[in-house]
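*** Protein under study ***
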Amino acid sequence: MAWFSKSKKRTENRSADIWIKCPRCGNHIFREDWHNNLNVCPKCNYHSKITSYERIGLILDSGTFEELNISIYPADPLKFTDAKESYAVKVENTRKKTGLNEAIVTGTGKINGLKVVVAVMDFRFMGGSLGSGTGEKILLASNYSYEKKIPLIIFSASGGARMHEGILSLMQMAKTCAGISRLDERKVPFISVLTDPTTGGVSASFATVGDINIAEPGAVIGFAGRRVIENTIKQKLPDDFQTSEYLLEHGFVDLIANRSSMKNTLYQVLSFYNR
């Protein structure tokens, strides 16, 4: 029956090329429809992950993006090695796979003609973890924003601090917040956009200190994981706990914006500050 097995496998591969199964509702969506809808499920509005450059293309005016500090990449001062491979090898493999040097892309551009500094995290790069290189790029972006008096927008997508760098990764929490806090001196707005997921040390630092905190629908936002919290407090948490909607209801985010309307939402917020 080898012919039958091969035929079945080819059919499955063709099906995978045509359809995408939504991780949330389970509906099968034509791959073309999924991408045309900005990687958002048209059935349940599930916002799937997108790359940093895809997001930049959606948010900034065409042809206006100029990347900053592209040459910054992770260092390995602790010479970390786990059971499988060294941190240095893991970083190099990730750089080759993603085409990125770090878990965040920074630069300048325009939103409907208004100039901004943007920093966009990319979950493909080691879970968007916050390492010393990530923190350095955010600090330099905030310094540029401070010097030029240009609004700063950070899109977060992260599992938290990068364990391979130990205490050095945790230091980035204070480092990034210190750089961002200086913007108040010049009345430069900082807009934080939280996407799925924004957790750990990132949620506990720069991601939640925006003058305006915006979230995509259904994003997981929190510090410790749900299971850890339930085991600690010995209580069952609400089904929507640590979602954008839960945080909006409890005052941790200011508004929720769909991906399709995010650019216009940011423009409206920036226009308010430009009055």
About this structure: Residues 2-18 form the longest helix (17 residues). The CA atoms of residues 69 and 137 lie 7 Å apart. The two ends are 73 Å apart (CA to CA).
